[in-house]
Amino acid sequence: MLSLFILPIAAINLGIVQTGGLLFLTYLTAGLGMAGIGMGIMHDAIHGSYSKNKAVNKSMGYTMNLVGASSTVWRIQHNVLHHSYPNIAGADDDLNMPFLLRFSPSIKRHWLHRYQFVYVWVFYCLSTISWITSKDFIRIKRYKKMGFLEKKNEYQKEISILILSKFLYYCFVLILPLIVVPLPFWLILLAFFSMHLMTGFLISTVFQIAHIMPGMAFPEPDENGLIAGDWSLHQMATTTNFSPKSRFFSWLIGGLNYQVEHHLLPNICHIHYRELSPIVATTAREYGMPYHTKKTFRGALWGHIKMLHHLGKKEGLKV
Q1: Tens digit of pLDDT for each residue in 218-229?
Q2: b/e per residue, 149-169, with b = 16+ CB within 10 A?
Q3: Any idea what the Cα angle at residue 141 is, between residues 195 and 128, rounded to 5°?
Q4: How many whole angstroms separate alpha carbon 259 and alpha carbon 213?
Q5: I want to staple 310 with a disulfide (CB 3.0 to 4.6 A). Which of 2, 12, 215, 319 is the partner?
């Protein structure tokens, strides 16, 4: 996955790419690699499951910065907020979407939401563009106000890393190509954006269909801020697997088709989820716990569309 990103970008910067068609193909290949880094390397590393060595995990976690985003912001958003509070509006930051999107029945519904199942794909495709421009800065500032990054000079250090990593990313992925490649600047910009459209669609779709689905629970806290049930039951009630029999697909998306196993065992490397899945499913049946799964990615995608349509039209959960 690192090669799928680094080698195409290197080929562009070395002046090997000379035609428009090859430029788009090269950038799109880098986009596939960028998505692979996000799902198959960075994701495990920041969870501490890429390696038994903490230093290796930390260094591989910085591959998130390599592709223009912040590993620190991701750690707080994903590891702390999403994994602790999946599908809880106001706590799970994956539900914190622009006004035009409604991903939980706890979020106020507006008339525009009835069309979100149509226009949501635009937001998915643009998601990594938001990441490399404004999202990280907005969230790191908000997380500071929430009580994170409280160690001495930690916030200032992370801001510096954020600015430096984005500067280097733009230099190698966009600015140098604009200088080196003998093609119109607008064509290079278009190819750059096409790379992000691919990456944004892949990453957003894979992560969202694991939770925004028919049959998923969207728990709400009581007056004391408590959620009924225990932690493991909550993870299983709010998460679904998809396409569990496809080895290639599992490799391509870093094992994220085994979301139930990942949410129960986030400190286990994704390469083990295929073997763990039957054990978890059998145990769930034994104790009468939910174990959601969709046979195919296409089926999961259709379920996600149905859920978005439902959330746009009605207040309840039943689809």
Answers
A1: 999 888 888 888
A2: beeeeebeebbeebeebbeeb
A3: 10
A4: 13
A5: 319
